Structure prediction request, 1242 residues.
Amino acid sequence: MDQNISVTFPHVLIFFPLLAGLITFLFKKDAAVKSWALFSSIITLIVSLLSLYYANNKTLSGLDFNYEWLKHIGASFSVSLDGMGRILTLLTAISFPIIFVATYKNQYKNAPLFYGLLLLTQAGLMGVFVATDALIFYFFWELAIIPVYFLCSRWGGEKRIQATFKFFIYTFTGSLLMLVGIIYMYLHTTAIHDKAGLLISEHSFSMSYFYAVTLSAPEQNWLFWLFFIAFAVKMPVFPFHTWQPDTYEQSPSAVTMVLSGVMVKMGLLGVIRWLLPMFPLAVAKFDTIVIILSVTGIVYASLLAIRQDDLKRLVAYSSIAHIGLMCATIFTTKQIGLEGVMIQMFNHGINIIGLWIVIELIEKQLGVRKISQLGGVAHKAPTLTIMLVVIAFANIALPLTNAFVGEFMMFSGLFQFSICFAVVALVSIILAAVYTLNMVQKVFYGPSNSLTATMKEISVNEQIALSIVVVAIFLTGIYPQPLFDLTKDTVAEIITRFK
Amino acid sequence: MSNTLQIVWLIPFLPLIGFLINGLGRKQLSKSLTGIIGSGVILASFLISIFVFFQVKNGNSHVAHYFDFINTGSLKVGFDFQIDQLSSLFLLIITGVGFLIHVYSTSYMHEEESKDFAKYFAYLNLFVFSMLLLVMGGNYIIMFIGWEGVGLCSYLLIGFWFKDNNNNDAAKKAFIMNRIGDFGFLLAVFWLIAKLGTTNYHDVFDQVSKLSSFDITGITLLLFLGATGKSAQIPLYTWLPDAMAGPTPVSALIHAATMVTAGIYMIARSNILFTMAPLTQSVVAVIGLATAVVAATIALKQNDIKKVLAYSTVSQLGYMFLGLGVGAYTGAVFHVMTHAFFKALLFLGAGSVIHAMGGEQDMRNMGGLKKYMSITHITFLLGCLAIAGMPPFSGFFSKDEILAAAFEKNPVYWGVGVLTAFMTAFYMFRLYGLTFLGKFRGTHDQEHHLHESPSAITIPLIILAILAVVGGWIGIPEVFMHGGHRLEAFLEPIFAQSNTLVTSLNEKHALSQTTEYALMAVSVAGALIALLYAWNKFSKYEKSIEEETGFAKVISNKWYVDEFYNAIVVKPIQSIAGFFSNVVEKKGIDGFVNGVGKAVNYGSRQIRLLQTGQVSAYMLMMVVAILILFIIQLFL
Amino acid sequence: MPINYYIFLALALFTIGVIGVLTRRNAIIIFMCIELMLNAANLLLVAFSKLHTATSNIATAGSDAQIFVFFIMIVAAAEVSVGLAIIVMMYRNTHSVDVNFLNRLKN
Prediction:
């Protein structure tokens, strides 16, 4: 292995936010911190956009960007961008500027710490999406989550300690299980030799070595669950989801947006990039169980969403339903479904961030999130309402908005796996219409009350943030082909493993 | 490549432009400018549609491909427009009737604030855009885009006056019921993709022989479920009457002339699939017939002028499905066309009346409007005659064609259909009588205010009335005039595949001329009697406050269908959701998670007692532990 | 002398040490008992080292045990100095060297 010192896009995507975050801690003035965070996130976005153009390999090439790191235990700092990585890093890079713009007016105590932790999370997310080495993957996995514990417990709502604790227990249990799995896998990899044939390390953390491990069926079975539970908690899949509504409700909005828009994709990526290729036998064995769980979760969460009175919890349950669909589709390992998942991972992030922004704006102005206390907001804030209606309809996958194509292909994949599951899961499009329209009606339409009469139209910043979301919704809704082009080779590669 | 029909993208694109201009400039544009833009783009589309129509008539049909909507390893969906006889006919109906309704709206909606006025026109343009996508799409996915798009516009327009929550409820109901239909539509498309890997009409219809009969039956039943949602058939029809909460021109355009016929268009488009699935065809026919009867009975007792028309629309749509079910595809499409003319006319006429009455919709408070609004009155009467199936008005020809085909298939269908026709004549002339005949029963203020509507309202009425009269003449039955059914000849290529199949299966025994004359005579005579009876009875109507009893009460309460759905669908879902959220989520899953936490807490509190604080106790424990380790080491 | 004698002596010393630690409450006596146990271990180490040297033909065999003993003695000396200092502090605070008074951390 040559010491290849050339700096590549994945490195910049990881280290720039990391450095920016560390620099943020040094700031003294709150105002400057905001501009700096926004500025640095825009730079990240530009890098991410450039990476779409300049790197042409669409599948993971394993060891190509490879620094020897902990050479003697076989860990290397190897990162790579495939189609899925590129789409998710793009999502991460787009989300943060939108979040920063939308919450620009918010005052956070000890702002340097707040923004610094957020940027560290961004670095962690980027790392998870590009890592091709299990140790690096695990490292960034934790780096992404740990700042969230602090963000949620310091800047959250009333019950923030309880919520953080729950979140911590859930995710940490998952992480530890995964760590056990990683170590077991590590101990079964073959040794690394250098070109001269000398032994470098007995084992390797490299992804390609992990893929090459041959495991017996019983081994695969229990390892599958170790990894799956870690990813399932993160997504989250029914019945590992109860941390999510609490955490979303209690976290500060910016953090909720990161959690729901981007961080849930860590679990999906984990399943696609690590779980499926490592344990094909176990996947073939347990796919039905996982799909049953996910499909149950879809209907269950949709029904719960109908009953929620708190806007944040409503969106949280709606997100559980959407993620459940993605998880179910991944385990069908149908090409059409996976192609749908790829673009839906991106689009779901955009839509849900849009929804959070709207909720945040209402809460900031009126101080309430209870649907029963709101009404008639449309009279006072027509622009906000139009944006919300667009985002809400994107959330229920109306054609020509971004979510339609993805959901269509995912359901189609599910249908090819089993008609029965597809029928049950498809009920959710009806339920989604019920809860979304209920919400739109009760919050925005109807007569306004004494509280909502004080509502004001949204400011320019907020309009910009929402406009970006709305433009993205229509752009990828009307012409989704670029996203397909980006990811179809990745999907084809995954599919060949299952043929 | 350079097919002249490649320019058809302009037809939906222009309304989209109109939507964008009116939508984005709603604060700047004046009302007249909004109206001109809104109507102008539709007019332009209409003119292009005429051009397209004549191109198609001269034998030029075309699938225009613009860009790849989805192009992946597993699925290819082009953004394609398919221009052929069927779509060009629908283009004419949509843009033509649409244009008239836009013109009408400029006057009808004039009292709105200019911002809302622009919003209204933006929505209306968006609707036309979606509807055009629906009929022009070259595959099921583009059709579905339009299909959901019209649902969205319907939602927005029903809830146009969103201050009133009743309107919002109606809008929500419409959207959700449509979604239930979409559920079926989507499953059908997934089924097609799973079996054939394509959704292009041409490819699907060419490969139809690859499908097993189970597949075809399943697909067509699911497609039909989609159609029942959009076209308001049993069991999903209850949204349409509620949808009358929207502005009246909207009811005319969306909930009578165009959107609700999307289901018929879809089935006519997929005719070969349905022809190959006899079971589905029977289901379609029976559901259509049942809807026709049920809706007609409800219409007998409604007092809201728009509600009567709404139920009448449901009933007429039932006829169209009957036509589709018995294989009379041309008849169904023909009825779509004539119905678009006379029902749009009736709705717009009703709108004119409501406008004059200052928003009053209850017919018991009307009466004698004949002498105040002559143009509205005459055009309305023509519309009533057309829907009642009086020759030579348009409704007669299309209804007759469907009934004749129904008789051929099964005389029972015909019997029920004719009965419905009698009821139609009755309730329409009840409506006419209550509104225009007799003496005025409203308040003095209203009477003082009565006036004929301005020309932006009356001119569309006149044009539609002419169409309602002569529209049927393009489909004169063979018995009257050889080669008189020009529509059938025009649409022949669309249904050719089905027709060949039907002929090859069983000899199509045409009805004898005498039978056909007899059938016509019965239906016309019956309808005439019902009409005259209603005319006579309701021109002398006096307001009374009698309680309805028995059957009359059941039908004036719409067969209690809404209550029934509430009890078996809405309430159970609410309570299941409540159960999940309060019991399963909180006590079950969260209870388990918190239980684990509590168990750990409790356990550690118990173990804590071991820490006595006495050094010698610790020592003792240590020694005991060492001894135990020794014992284990030595003996085990 | 047979190795058994050394073992019995060490066992006796160790047992006395354990019993002393368990039964006495005076911190200084407990402390001395601990030393007794350490010395029992030392005795055994030396004895076995000797045995090992005698039976092996390698000259340096068993010498590591001797080195261990020195280590233990040094560590014990360090421990004594720290331990006595703690006991002195304890006496200053509680005016007693009874370990049963040392349960204040409990609550």
In short: Chain C has one domain: 3-98. Chains C and A do not touch (no CB pair under 8 Å).
